[in-house]
Amino acid sequence: MPRKSKKQRNAEQLARQQRVRDNAKTKRRPSRDDLARVLLWQMITAAQRREDARAALDKLSEAIVEELERQGFDVRESEDVFEDLADRYSGGLFPFRPKRHLMSHSTASEL
């Protein structure tokens, strides 16, 4: 059997990925990025609530920035991104928009 063309493989991959996304939406399954965002928010807000908040945030920032640097990201830019997120999360408001497509119609209309 001859090998499929690149165009055909890409079309099949696109259809597979759409099925995966549709299935995740139906199951209301969070993505890895959804989990990572919530985890980072929880870590930052927990560090801010500590008595030694600045030291806790600095330690968290150092660990995250060090890993980003190991992956090839710029240290200063990574620090800036972390500080921007920490500032945004310090307001005490839940920073994420509701995922209306995951809610029932009655719940979504209440928001």
From TrEMBL:
What is the name listed in the Swiss-Prot or TrEMBL entry for this protein? Uncharacterized protein
| Coiled coil residues, start to end | 43-70
- Bias (Basic and acidic residues) ranges: 19-31
- Asked if the Swiss-Prot or TrEMBL record annotates the protein with the keyword Coiled coil, the reply is yes
Keyword Coiled coil present in the record's keywords: the answer is yes
UniProt keyword list: Coiled coil
List the residue ranges of the region (Disordered): 1-31
Domain of life, per lineage? Bacteria
Could you tell me which species this protein originates from? Rhizobium altiplani
